[in-house]
Design a protein that fits this description.
With 149 residues, this protein is an all-alpha fold. It has one domain. The protein has 4 helices and no strands. 2% of the residues are buried. One of its GO terms (biological process) is positive regulation of plasminogen activation. One of its GO terms (cellular component) is plasma membrane.
């Protein structure tokens, strides 16, 4: 009788473990999906910001270029054209960021760094552990209670 009950409890326990593992997996997949969607939204906002900034900077660049060119012709001083060069670099960067392949090149470089220079990504004192977080929490808690006295 005890053997049958024990066998039934073992089967139920195994089913319970499988159910918990399945739920943990689903929760992890949902968490990964949510984090990816948040990352995508942040990236979309950054690209949108670049495009909006490009509109304003492009207008500024065009007006400045026209003004400096007119001034250089009127005063016969080609030195007035010098600011166009650095402004052109900034404009090109913004154009590449907003509509070009900058994001793809950055992703490729990041993948290369992760593959061949992984040691550059290490956190100081290593990855936080439960014990290190708990130790810091206890220290802060004991300091707060000490200051209250």
């Amino acid at each position: 009788m005890g053997f049958l009950l024990s066998k039934s409890m073992d089967a139920n326990f195994k089913k319970q473990q499988e159910f918990m593992l399945h739920n943990a997996r689903l929760q992890m997949e949902r968490q990964i999906q949510m984090q990816n969607q948040m990352r995508e939204r942040q990236m979309a906002m950054q690209i949108a910001w670049s495009r909006e900034f490009l509109k304003y900077f492009g207008t500024f660049f065009a007006v400045t270029t026209l003004g400096l060119t007119a001034g250089a012709i009127k005063r016969k001083n080609p030195a007035l054209l010098a600011p166009i060069v650095p402004l052109g670099f900034i404009f090109s960067y913004q154009m590449d960021s907003a509509y070009g392949t900058l994001v793809h090149r950055m992703r490729g470089e990041a993948e290369c760094i992760m593959a061949s220079e992984h040691d550059r990504l290490d956190l100081p004192l290593g990855t936080p552990t439960f014990d290190s977080i708990e130790k810091a929490r206890r220290a802060k808690s004991s300091l707060a209670s000490f200051l209250e006295k």
